[in-house]
Amino acid sequence: MDDAIEARVVGPAPHIAAPTTCTHIMLWVVAALAPSALWAVVTMGWVAAQLLLICIGVALATEYVWNAIARRPQTLTDGSALVTGLLLAMSLPPRTPWWVAAAAALVAIGLAKQLFGGLGHNLFNPALVGRAFVAVSWAGVFAAAPSRGWFQTLPEVTAEGFDAISGATRLAVAAADRAASGAYGFDLAAQYQPLLLRNLEGSLGEVSAALLIAGGLLLIVRGIIDWRIPAGYIGTMALVSWAFGADALFHILAGGVMLGAFFMATDYVSSPMSKTGRIVYGVGCGLFNAVGRFVGAMPESTTFAILFMNGLAPLIDRMTRPRTFGWVKRDV
Amino acid sequence: MARQVFRGGVHPPEHKEATSASAIQWAPVPARLVLPMSQHLGAPCVPTVAVGDRVARGQVIGSVDAVVSAPIHSPVAGTVTAISDTLTTGGARVAAVTIEPDAEQDLEGYLKVTADDERGRIRAAGIVGLGGATFPSVVKLTPPKDMHIEVLILNGCECEPFLTCDHRLMVEQPERVVAGARHIGRIVGAKRIVIAVESNKPDAVEALRAEAGDDVEIQVLPTRYPQGAEKQLIYALLGAEVPHGKLPAATGALVHNVATAAAIADALEHGKPLTERIVTVTGEVARPGNYRVVLGTLVSELIEIAGGFSGPVERVIAGGPMTGQALASLDVPVTKGTSGIVALAPGVAAPAIIGDQPCIRCGRCTVGCPMGLEPYAIANYANRRMWDSAAARRPIDCIECGVCSYVCPTRRPLLQLIRLAKAAALAKGVS
Prior knowledge:
The complex is a heterodimer.
Chain A: H1 2-7, H2 22-44, H3 46-70, H4 80-90, H5 98-114, H6 126-137, H7 139-143, H8 169-181, H9 192-197, H10 209-221, H11 228-243, H12 248-253, H13 257-264, H14 275-295, H15 302-319
Helix pairs in contact in A: 2-3, 2-4, 2-10, 3-4, 3-5, 4-5, 4-6, 5-6, 6-15, 10-13, 11-13, 11-14, 14-15
Chain B: E1 25-26, E2 33-36, E3 46-47, E4 54-55, E5 60-63, E6 72-73, E7 78-87, E8 93-101, H1 118-124, H2 137-140, E9 151-156, H3 165-172, H4 174-188, E10 192-198, H5 202-211, E11 216-221, H6 230-238, E12 253-257, H7 258-270, E13 276-283, E14 289-294, H8 299-305, E15 315-318, E16 325-326, E17 340-344, H9 364-368, H10 375-383, H11 387-392, H12 403-407, H13 414-427
Parallel strand pairs in B: 1-14, 9-10, 9-12, 10-11, 13-17
Antiparallel strand pairs in B: 2-8, 3-5, 4-7, 5-6, 7-8, 13-14, 15-16, 15-17
Helix pairs in contact in B: 3-4, 3-5, 4-5, 4-7, 10-13
């Protein structure tokens, strides 16, 4: 028995721990996104795979080099850089030049995450910062030379259909039509099926809304993400679309809403922590995304809607503190 | 009145199957008993015997004249061989009386406690909260004059993983539990008596219902940790929150553990002092079970009685794994508050905390906190020694259930940091 005594660990209670670690959480996110990423590669081809490899590779390399230079412990095993790289790739159109994708990953990890202190300290979602950076810096690259071969269901759409943010072509057409005549020039209801199953106009993450929804539901069921954020986001998006007299279903299936609501806005670090706060935050994301679409200059606004709400998250946390048990007032 | 589910909480793997069907059995009396003079919250006792004295089973060997205290009795007939000190399960060093038991023991007999009234007998029997809190029971039976107890709640939730001692007591001796409930209810003048049991113990519910008449309600609550925490239990049953800084009696409720009630029944009906308790010995031991253990038995002896370790053991816990203490030494005695001895294998025990891992703001601690606190925020302030900011987030309301540390995916020592913040707040006079 003495050997056992020597080997014993003494520590504070609790002496058991939930099996879910940070790495598990990150790998669940990867697993939930994997079908969408694979489907993007299958439908879009090798360019999608290249984009995924570049974004993930540069994200991992940036974090590794940063830690090495800063003489901090290596953190790649927490899985967060992998998730950032993957999310970033999913948010870019497949034709994105490799060096633009690399710059986005560098900015995502280096500027948005490591400079702020690494995992847990970034105010903004790193993948979205990376995306916003290149979207603003190389808007021309985003808009230029779309590969016509990818347009299969709306072949008449041309370059003006690409907004600088998400390449949400159908959205762009819809927006242009609305601006020109107040009506849609094509049948929105006919777009549901391609948007759900096989849509090659936008980013990698827009290829199938159905796969994103399935992945998001998986994360909710597994307790990885809170349903309140996507529910608030998508619900508000639908409601505002309806209020603007638009087709609500088309507007939640098109563009970056599904990727944003299930995978971007739910990023732990940059979203609120209280249940109430998460509803407020989700509603805010949906509101700004919808308002951006209907009254903004750009056809799509997922990135900036979420980044804006990221900035408000600490404030939302302050305003929605849970009421302490046994106290009458919310806060003193 | 409507039953409600308390906020937050978790449902860890129960690990109760190893012992939930194990009938309570006497653990053999070891060759030496070490009886700490402080087995309760409150003033420590002073030994009332000397080395060489013969003692009888049930004889007082330590007491002190204080309101919040509980006398210690010899659990065996034997000889006092030392008055020194001992390490406790909690890691403190306290005065202790060592007794060498006689070879022949009559565990059915004992010196009866005597006192003029019922409260006096409960006090003289040395009864404390057996759920682990070890607060002297008689003090809880004497609420302040301006408070009236409407509802007596007996806590049979046993929400800690691994432990089944209360479960087996309710299954095997429901009549003692129900009798104790009636005694306490009568003493405090409660209009309603409720015994609360978690849904994972249907056999206990059945056994209690067979004993309880119309005067004792058996309520089944969802299996969720910390269902057995006093404030959460009152809330679940009555829908009332114990106000900050007030006694539970402010809600008209009084909560006692089921084992405490059984001990009170024994004291009132048979004059029996508290000299043994049921201990769940489980985890990596050869013969896990529920043992009736004379107080003062060393944990090392008890593990031998349970067949010794059956595999590699990383931590040995006194109590349950959520709130118990990890033992540095096994040569510490079982005391009134020792509900279990749990030998945790590597992989079952929480991994050791390495370095300062970041908070990823997942919110699991906030969602899980049954008190509605934001553990991450208190812990972050405590980590930066910003004690005033930490105190403003009400660490004093923390019930130390450990849910926050349990759920944290980066294994931050949240409860430890909150305890620091709590101590700092109390030191500054925050109430």
